[in-house]
Amino acid sequence: MRTWLCRIVFFCSLLACTYLVAQSAQSPQAQPSDKSSRTAKAGLATEGDKRFQEHCGRCHHLPEDLSPREARAVVRQMRVRAMLSAEDEKLILEYIAP
Amino acid sequence: MFYKTLAIIAMLAASGLSTPAQSDVPVISGGAGFIGTTQGGASFFEPVVAPVIAAPIGDHLLIEGRATFLGLISRADGTTGPYQGQFLESADYLQIDYTINSRLTIVVGRFLTPFNIYNERFTPIWIPELVNPPLIIPIGTLTTASSNGAMIRGALVGRDNYEVNYTAYYSASNLANNPNTHFGSARATGGRAGVFFPHARIEFGMSYERYLQDTPMNVFGSYLSWQPTGTALNVKGEYAHSLSGQGYWLQGAYRLLRFRGPDSAIGRLAPVARVQQFFRNQPVSGDQLPGVNTREVDFGLNYYLPHEIRLNGSYGRQFSSQSNANVWNFAVTYRFMFPMWPGGPK
Q1: A26 vs A35, residue with greater confidence
Q2: How many CB atoms lie within 10 A of CB B326?
Q3: Residue A95 lies in a domain
Q4: Cross-chain Cβ contact A60/B341 below 8 Å
Q5: What value does the mean pLDDT take over residues B265-292?
Q6: Could A20 and B201 be called an inter-chain contact, meaning their C-beta atoms sit closer than 8 Å?
Q7: Is residue A29 part of a domain?
Q8: Residue A21 lies in a domain
Q9: Which residues of A fall within a CB distance of 8 Å from B10?
Q10: Domain B2-339 class?
């Protein structure tokens, strides 16, 4: 009986998450507008590619269709798992979700 | 207890709603697959789903966990009789990570035992190029490959040419009073230290564990991981030693990227080979290792389809003084990932 109760709480919590956040407002993301900004981002992405291959590519390839929303949580998790530095985290995040 | 914990995780993730940053959305990822194995004439099949949750809260805190739901379908008498199935579920890890800086992250909860590299890096079903784990994996990861306690880890030294990383942990046992728990672990303490050379893409290191229950013993290990720059070769290996015995495995995989890139028909193919040996020292009850000296060689093929689907097939031959056996594996794995709730820019 308690197991079923916990299952119901689990699924209700998931549903609550989905509903509440679907109602929340979305914050607009800033877009790079000028050429120098794009060049700087390209440089970061190249370095990020290098860091990704050095650290993450040892175990797996780049996930397909990784959105910026997903990338932050994934890279945070990998920072702990792969013992990445803060700089590695930033560059890899810039590379996989520019 | 298991579902109670999942309910707590869901509620903790829901608490992330209070954080202002939309980008802190928790993510559910993981793998699903179907694994078929025939070893020495005995076949068994395993449909598997292993979801992973990662919920960052602010800039320093992360809640992460992985559960495995596994069906085991096999014949009643091994090689004969009707097929029968059972359902198994386990919590692989469920931990709170507090990252203070690059050098130190404090982990509390249930975590994968950080002995050598296989257990932490290659147990997600969509990662290993060979489905069947190496023979020596139980060395250093008894009893459930997970630990309940606390761990510190980080990159102690980070330079352009080299990095020194470490982990140290203590785990309590909860199997004596709850032998059927989904959160079983052994009382043990240990650590791992490694050196990584980014330019050469080579890492090697050593592990130590003091096993503190049943038959107390010291366990040692070392590992190697090498991905030569400019090639798609991936070499990995481990050595481990305990009271039960010692052994090693060495594996090489090569993805045929040179043939028109990773998206070509041949470029999606990755052959893999592994050699391994285990030398029995003395019998230790419940050590989950082969009873006698055993060696095995495996050859496999991986085919990486679009949309994160992978086909894997392998053949191995196992030699021991008890008997020799063929080991066949076939697996289809799918890696999935999605935010815990919809909305926001894709």
Answers
A1: A35
A2: 12
A3: yes
A4: no
A5: 94
A6: no
A7: no
A8: no
A9: 9-10, 13-14, 17
A10: mainly beta
B250 touching A, CB under 8 A?
Answer: no
**Does residue A65 or residue A34 have the better pLDDT?**
A65
ipTM exceeds 0.85, yes or no:
no
pLDDT over 50 (residue A29) = no
Contact assignment for B99 to A63 by CB distance below 8 Å: no
Number of independent structural domains in chain A: 1
Polymer length of chain B: 346
pLDDT in tens, B13-43: 555 544 444 467 899 999 999 999 999 889 9
CB contact under 8 A, A79 and B304: no
- CB–CB contact A17 B306 (8 Å): no
Task: Please name the residue that has the structure tokens 């290993």.
Answer: B128
* DSSP letter, residue B131: S
Nearest CA in chain B to A97: B346
Cis bond before residue A3 (omega within 30° of 0)? no
Pair of tokens at residue B305: 């389809």
Q: Residue B2 has what pLDDT?
A: 55
Token pair belonging to B103:
């050098």
Q: Is residue A54 part of a domain?
A: yes
Residues within 8 A of A (CB atoms), B 280-319 only: 304, 306-308
Supply the DSSP string of B230-289, one letter for each residue.
TS-EEEEEEEEE-SSEEEEEEEEEE--TTTT-TTSTTTTEEEEEEEEEEEE-S--TT--S
What lies within 8 Å, CB to CB, of B341 at 6+ separation is A17, A18, A20, A21, A22, B25
Domain ranges, residue A48: 40-98
Tell me which chain A residue has its CA closest to the CA of residue B112.
Answer: A81
All residues of chain B having their beta carbon less than 8 Å from the beta carbon of residue A20 are 14, 17, 341
Report how far apart, in Å, the C-alpha atoms of B249 and of each of A55, B108, B136, B237, B245 are: 22, 31, 8, 5, 14
- Residue pair A68/B23 in contact (Cβ under 8 Å)? The answer is yes
3-class SS at B141?
coil
